[in-house]
Design a protein that fits this description.
The protein has about 350 residues and is mainly beta. The chain has helices at about 1-25, 30-35, 80, and strands at about 50-55, 55, 120-125, 130-135, 140-145, 150-160, 170-175, 180-185, 195-205, 210-215, 225-235, 240-245, 255-260, 265-275, 290-295, 300-310, 315-325, 330-335. The strands form five sheets. Strands 3, 4, 6, 8, 9 and 11 form a six-stranded antiparallel beta sheet that branches. It has a five-stranded antiparallel beta sheet with strand order 12-18-14-16-15, with no helix packed on it. Strands 5-10-7 form a three-stranded antiparallel beta sheet, with no helix packed on it. The chain starts with a helix and ends with a strand.
Length: about 350
């Protein structure tokens, strides 16, 4: 009888001890589990390893999707930082570095638009560089210059002997480059080869320093000359259209250059010689003309180098120079195409 009583007393105590052990092993009674929610497993991690709602875990024990606004790395910051509201990043003041900095994709999407617009064509700063002679017996006229790499160089020469003959043709060389003659307009048949305008071009792949170009006339008679060196950035190595006039024939020639431009964005440059004026070009300058050099010689010739103000708007005729026609005029011009 005493044994039976002992068992009767000890059995409830054993059940009570087992219940306490269960509470210790599970880290305490979960309020949701106590209410009957079986979605939280009893063997969930304990202490700091346990996932928190909204921070790396879902209520069914799975991991929070990356799209979840409250998602953070496994190593969560302190509660004060974790519980702070997330702020949107201002795109105009995004941090330059760090985890919140914007990242640029190294590979653009296949359908990204590509900017294929042509490069802008301009004359390098400090150009054109000019030199001139009046009544000089020298057979040569030269100009020293510097230039950057990948440039189209253009030389315009206006030269002649008033009332003479045999000054032209003229050759050009220098700077270690191959110069191509784009156009030469020479007086003919009157005062044959006495005066003319010539234009040459060369492409330089490397920078030039202290280089000299030299134009050489056919003889050493006293003559006038005006030479200009242009350096163009964004230019095509290939020239566009050319044009010119010769007023040393039966009819007077226009003291201007008309070029049938091939494209938009081109620059027109040229030279003009008035063989019957010692005080500058006759007539009035056209509104779209800029003069980069002028020489009025006591010999009776006036020389000028001009270009179009701005660039061509498209294919079509473009005229630079003076607004009238006179006898004893020669002109020549070229179109510089953009790349």
């Amino acid at each position: 009888m005493a044994s039976a009583r002992a068992l009767f007393v000890l059995a409830p105590l054993a059940a009570f001890a087992a219940g306490c052990s269960l509470l210790v092993n599970t880290g305490g009674l979960d309020t949701e589990a106590a209410s009957g929610d079986s979605s939280v497993p009893v063997d969930a991690p304990r202490g700091s390893d346990a996932p928190r709602d909204g921070v790396g875990a879902t209520r069914d024990g799975g991991h929070t999707p990356d799209s979840f606004v409250g998602h953070r790395d496994a190593e969560s910051p302190p509660d004060s930082a974790r519980d702070a509201p997330l702020r949107p990043v201002d795109a105009h003041h995004a941090p330059d570095s760090g985890p919140d900095a914007p990242h640029e994709s190294k590979d653009a999407p296949a359908d990204s638009p590509v900017d294929a617009s042509p490069a802008q064509l301009t004359i390098d700063m400090g150009f054109p560089q000019t030199t001139s002679q009046k009544n000089s017996g020298s057979m040569t006229v030269a100009r020293t210059f510097d230039a950057s790499a990948d440039r189209l160089l253009v030389v315009v020469l206006v030269s002649g002997q008033h009332g003479g003959s045999g000054v032209w043709p003229v050759t050009l060389a220098g700077a270690g480059l191959t110069w191509a003659s784009a156009i030469q307009t020479i007086s003919n048949p009157q005062y044959s080869d006495a005066v003319g305008v010539g234009i040459w071009t060369a492409w330089t792949e490397t920078a030039l320093s202290g280089q000299t170009v030299t134009a050489t006339r056919s003889n050493s008679v006293s003559a006038d000359a005006l030479l200009a060196v242009y350096s163009f950035v964004g230019a095509s190595p290939t020239l566009g259209a050319t044009g010119g006039t010769n007023g040393f024939g039966a009819d007077a020639g226009a003291l201007s250059v008309t070029v049938a431009a091939q494209a938009a964005g081109s620059i027109i440059v040229g030279g003009l010689l008035d063989g019957d004026s010692a005080s500058g070009l006759r007539g009035t300058a056209l509104s779209d003309t800029i003069y980069d050099g002028n020489v009025a010689s006591s010999s009776g010739d006036s020389l000028a180098i001009a270009r179009l103000h701005g660039a061509t708007s498209g294919p079509g005729s473009v005229t630079i120079g003076q607004s009238a026609s006179f006898p004893y005029d020669v002109t020549a011009g070229v179109e510089i195409l953009r790349r």
